[in-house]
């Protein structure tokens, strides 16, 4: 028995209350009213544009702490999502994608190689076996394989041996790119076949000699 194998947010500002508007002299109520309203509007705008004294530092520190906490939570969430995606074969780096592509191609090549041996070898070929490598997506890919094949001669039958060795040799050379081991098996099958042919020729000579004696 021999083996045929393949090559391996924005926060609002705070404001203070406005002081009450003073009394308006008689006869100037409407004009003073408009002036007071205008003055109130400007004062409100100025008040809202700046934070209240004594609250600015505390609010800013609280805001920064809240933003930092939110940022950490977002980072942790993204890390968890990335890990989950990597486990499912997604979101791989360029190097990992390249490795995955090569592994898939190697897996197809190895399986086709061993399938060719087994298909042509028929009854003389054994089951396919593979060696695997885990890819970056977590899946297993075949990177090597072999098929056992019977290269023993048929005892006492040179003609049957010749026919068997023809099948064995064809099975060894069946893949598109036979390995060194495949070529060694093919060479051994050829040697066995030549020996069987020599036995047949010797047997025929013996029979012819016997016929000549009794002729």
UniProtKB/TrEMBL annotation:
Residues 15-48 have a biased composition (Low complexity). Residues 56-71, 80-94 have a biased composition (Polar residues). Residues 1-96 are annotated as: Disordered. This is SprA-related family protein.
């Amino acid at each position: 028995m021999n083996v045929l194998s393949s090559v391996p947010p924005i926060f609002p500002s705070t404001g203070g209350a406005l002081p009450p508007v003073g009394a308006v002299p008689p006869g100037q109520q409407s004009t003073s009213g408009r002036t007071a309203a205008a003055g109130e509007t400007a004062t409100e705008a100025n008040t809202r544009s700046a934070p209240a004294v004594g609250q600015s530092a505390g609010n800013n520190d609280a805001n920064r702490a809240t933003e930092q906490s939110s940022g950490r939570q977002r980072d942790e969430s993204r890390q968890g999502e990335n890990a989950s995606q990597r486990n499912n074969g997604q979101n791989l780096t360029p190097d990992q994608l390249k490795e995955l592509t090569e592994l898939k191609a190697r897996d197809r090549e190895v399986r086709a190689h061993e399938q060719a041996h087994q298909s042509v070898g028929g009854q003389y070929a054994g089951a396919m076996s593979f060696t695997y490598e885990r890819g970056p997506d977590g899946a297993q890919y075949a990177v090597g394989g072999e098929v056992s094949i019977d290269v023993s001669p048929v005892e006492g039958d040179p003609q049957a041996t010749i026919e068997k060795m023809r099948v064995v040799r064809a099975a060894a050379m069946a893949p598109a790119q036979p390995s060194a081991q495949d070529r060694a098996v093919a060479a051994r099958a050829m040697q066995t076949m030549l020996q069987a042919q020599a036995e047949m020729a010797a047997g025929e000579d013996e029979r012819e000699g016997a016929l000549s004696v009794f002729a």
